Automatic annotation (TrEMBL):
Residues 4-185 form the CobQ/CobB/MinD/ParA nucleotide binding domain. InterPro entries: CobQ/CobB/MinD/ParA_Nub-bd_dom (IPR002586), DNA_Partitioning_ATPase (IPR050678), P-loop_NTPase (IPR027417). This is ParA family protein. Pfam families: CbiA.
Length: 213
């Protein structure tokens, strides 16, 4: 099972938006032949991923939640091939270390402002060391940003210094908000409706395929 962890200890950076659409892409990719079975889970007490999954309509590619049994720890449903784990703000210490041991890759959503960069500097530096020591794949996705801006350039310079790639720059759009309200992702609606956003996801899709090659 491939485990993708979406993490940033700072709140409000777009972790759930990124997590749900990652799961949506994987489920959509495996829908034709059923070769991919996707789980979306989180380690937040609020279980926001589970609440989002309850909104998904019939007829879209299936995404599962944790299998829960009384007195037993949460675990992926049997047959799961890919798990996307959404993590809460403030994740640190032993809980973070434990999750990192399970992850095949970590994707960090980050808004390219100086304040966001400073707030996550030590976290990103720790991930860069983990990548160097254990080979865990780590990448950043810039959220709510125009790649032509100075703030985007600033983010690129900072991440380059750590050896961490910025996979994509996702624009600030209501599409994510409107789709999430119905338990949907960019991959659950006609591509023509979200063409600009789907185009921005192409390098993320390519990176995910490279993880499995």
């Amino acid at each position: 099972m491939r485990v993708l962890m979406v993490a940033n200890p700072k709140g409000g950076v777009g972790k759930s938006t990124l997590s749900t659409n990652l799961a949506g892409h994987l489920a959509w990719r495996g829908a034709p032949d059923g070769s991919v079975r996707v789980m979306l889970g989180d380690v937040d007490r609020q279980q926001s991923a589970k609440a989002w999954l309850s909104l998904r309509p019939a007829g879209v590619p299936r995404i599962s939640s944790w299998a829960l049994e009384a007195g037993q720890p949460a675990r992926p449903p049997k047959g799961t091939t890919h798990a996307v784990i959404d993590t809460p703000a403030g994740l640190h210490g032993e809980k973070l270390k434990g999750l990192l041991k399970l992850a095949d890759a970590v994707i960090v959503p980050l808004q390219p402002s100086l304040f966001d960069i400073l707030a996550t500097r030590s976290f990103l530096e720790g991930l860069a060391e983990l990548k160097a020591a254990k080979g865990v794949q780590i990448a950043i996705v810039a959220m709510r940003v125009d790649p032509r801006t100075r703030s985007a350039e600033q983010l690129e310079r900072f991440t380059d210094s750590l050896g961490l790639p910025v996979l994509a720059h996702l624009r600030d759009t209501q599409n994510y908000i409107q789709l999430a309200a119905h338990g949907l992702t960019l991959y659950d609606v006609p591509e023509s409706r979200v063409a600009k956003d789907r185009q921005q996801w192409v390098p993320i899709e390519r990176w995910l395929r490279l993880l499995e090659s």
